[in-house]
From TrEMBL:
Gene3D superfamilies: Cytidine Deaminase, domain 2 (3.40.140.10). Residues 2-112 form the CMP/dCMP-type deaminase domain. Pfam families: dCMP_cyt_deam_1 (PF00383). It comes from Chryseobacterium formosus. Homodimer. The gene is tadA. This is tRNA-specific adenosine deaminase. The active site is at E55. Its cofactor is Zn(2+).
Amino acid sequence: MFTDEYFMKMALQEAEIAFEKDEVPIGCVVVSNNRVIARAHNLTETLNDVTAHAEMQAITSAANFLGGKYLINCTLYVTLEPCVMCSGALYWAQISKVVIGARDEQRGFINKNLSLHPKTEIVSGIMENECSLIVKEFFKAKR
């Protein structure tokens, strides 16, 4: 029952909330022991804050929940590959696993030849089509 797809669907629900708020539709959840401990979506427009990416919001929320700054034994499910800023935050948080829906060839950390913490496992391509489609629909409507 608790598969990568199960939790990615929750991240996609967060992306849909962002879409409805006219935010770039990226969502994520942080999971510990098969329990969602944080949910977030982009809030850069709402908060007028360029750092208010879904991942940054989720890292802060999860750290507050756990009572510490490290997200060891946690998994972040995110609909779009994290940017350089978010990958840096994930590195410092020492998150154990990151599951990515769709790649971001232009702004994602992978093509920038960056890596996460050496102990962080990365899985990509979970519900890739659905995660990619919502972003494409958002920017198509903007043009």
